[in-house]
Automatic annotation (TrEMBL):
It comes from Streptomyces actinomycinicus. Belongs to the KptA/TPT1 family. This is Probable RNA 2'-phosphotransferase. Removes the 2'-phosphate from RNA via an intermediate in which the phosphate is ADP-ribosylated by NAD followed by a presumed transesterification to release the RNA and generate ADP-ribose 1''-2''-cyclic phosphate (APPR>P). May function as an ADP-ribosylase. Its EC number is 2.7.1.-. SUPFAM superfamilies: ADP-ribosylation. GO terms for molecular function: NAD+ poly-ADP-ribosyltransferase activity; tRNA 2'-phosphotransferase activity.
């Protein structure tokens, strides 16, 4: 499977497992799971055919491990805009986590902190390199440091997704450190 096809299938899966399952007639269970055979049939019926082998390749080679297969089912690891309960237990975060963004959002973040926007949770990275790559998707990246240890001590709940993304409901401004100082 060539890289272009891999990316195309991955984007299709993200769109329909994270954001618009109803567009192709999928009805994920409360945990976001859909039967693989149902997904492949729905995609084919809506003009985007792919094989189980292609699906397995995309899941296995995705650099961010965006998807998880469990038995005969598949779901996105995180990043849903649809209502799902990933069933992730609370987890103790490392002392610091990181968030990649771009400069045009900094004023709003200074005022309001990090909010989930159209997603269920704020996504945080365990290392600066990953946060830099995330921020770079929207322009020149700016990496914010999150005092996740203090947040946790203050009662904020964290979860970690199957692919290592740290999730929390919101990050108030007082827990953020900006490049060059606050």
């Amino acid at each position: 499977m060539d890289e272009q096809r891999t990316v195309k299938v991955s984007k299709y899966l993200s769109r329909h497992l994270r954001h618009q399952p109803e567009r192709i007639g999928l009805a994920p269970d409360p945990g976001g799971w859909v039967e693989i055979d149902t997904l492949i049939a729905a995609a084919t019926a809506h003009g985007f055919a792919f094989t189980r082998e292609e699906l397995d390749h995309v899941v296995a080679t995705n650099d961010k491990q965006r998807f998880v297969i469990e038995g005969t089912r598949i779901r996105a690891s995180q990043g849903h805009s649809i209502d799902v309960d990933l069933g992730l237990p609370p987890a103790t975060p490392p002392p610091y986590l990181y968030h990649g963004t771009v400069a045009r959002h900094l004023d709003a973040i200074r005022a309001e902190g990090l909010r989930p926007m159209s997603r269920h949770d704020v996504h945080l990275s365990a290392d600066r390199d990953t946060a830099t790559r995330v921020g770079a998707r929207r322009g020149r990246p700016v990496v914010l440091t999150v005092d996740s240890g203090a947040m946790h001590r203050d009662g904020h709940v964290f979860h970690i997704s199957a692919n290592g993304v740290w999730l929390t409901a919101t990050v108030p401004p007082r827990y953020l450190r900006f490049p060059g100082g606050n």
